[in-house]
Amino acid sequence: MRSNSRKKLPEFPIPEILASQETTSALGDIVEHVDKNAINPNIYKGQFKDSATKKDRFLVRERLKGIYYNKCAYCEDIQNKPEVEHYRPKKKLSEDRNHPGYYWLCYEWTNLLPACHYCNTDKGKRNQFPIRGIRVNAPPRLPDGSWNQSANDASVSPLIDEEPYLLHPEVDQPDDGSYFKFHNTGVMEGIDPKGRGKKTIEICDLNREDLIDRRREKISNILELIRCFSALWSEGHLTVDDFKAALESMVFEKMLKMQQPDQPFSLLAIYIFEHFNEIIVPELPTPTQGKAVSAVFTNFRKRFKYYKNIKYLLK
Ligand SMILES: [Zn+2]
User: Fold this and answer.
1) Which of the chain's ends, N or C, has fewer CB atoms near its CB within 10 Å?
2) Given phi > 0 = left and psi -120 to 50 = alpha, else beta, which region is 245?
């Protein structure tokens, strides 16, 4: 999961279908009558018939895909047709059978995320939404009793006060290094003291077998290349300068590209870069090779101190 912000992406504004008069009015009725059966999936998916092509379009999904670089907001796998997922479940909660679900957020833009089928359903999230704070049980009201729709944003009170366990890519900073650790095996581990990373992994089943396998493969591919160049250098087939040049241009620059937000599993790539000496170096066959590779990497990293801003690498 990578940090994101749709508010900083004016090219992907709130879809017209969510902000329309008709939707606002229909939502008002749902809230007033607690009528969850009236929730219309065509609205939160943004489904409409394109008059030019006569084909169905899914505007909400298209916007979410743009914001999330065609990736699942939770597992970062590439998704051509992600599901429009409600961060806060709209109809019921696994944790509290008496809670009606966050039905008033059914068309709320900040409550919608693109998710793959596995993270959203299957053994993944479904209707889970555990919290640490006090659960919001009903739509927020103004002093005159009317519904306060402006308090529906996931990043403001009262929703922010619930302290959800599940990280939100746009409310939290899931890639700041404080929530997740990755192992060489491809397994993810939650590391923050509040247990949000751990719970997020559990809720979305982020340690499912195929994700572990693919993350492990990414680590192995890097390792294989480094081992190959290290062996050539050790055996005298590469000079020190050629060894350095090969590592930098064919491995470390590739590792920078893997961190770009449009790349699948880019959080893992950030982790590998930030923890190179823990996750890669010990896997090299000899301490001499480990020391040499570590020295080249440290030097590369110093030069690319501001690597996160290097745009040219994507060109
Ligand atoms: Zn996913």
Assistant:
1) C
2) alpha
Ligand 1 centroid–CA 202 distance in Å is 13
Amino acid letter, residue 24: T
Reported for 38-41, long-range contacts at CB under 8 A and 24+ positions apart, including other chains, are: 39/90, 39/91, 39/103, 39/106
What is the three-class DSSP state of 276? helix
CA 72–ligand 1 middle distance (angstroms): 5
Task: Compute, in angstroms, the gap from residue 121 CA to the centroid of ligand 1.
Answer: 10
Q: What are phi and psi of 131, to 5 degrees?
A: -135, 165
pLDDT in tens, 123-140: 889 999 999 999 999 999
- pLDDT of 25: 95
CA of 197 to the centre of ligand 1 (A): 15
Residues near ion ligand 1 (CB < 5 Å) are 72, 74-75, 116, 119
Distance CA 230, CA 122 (A): 43
Which tokens hold the place of 55? 């084909």
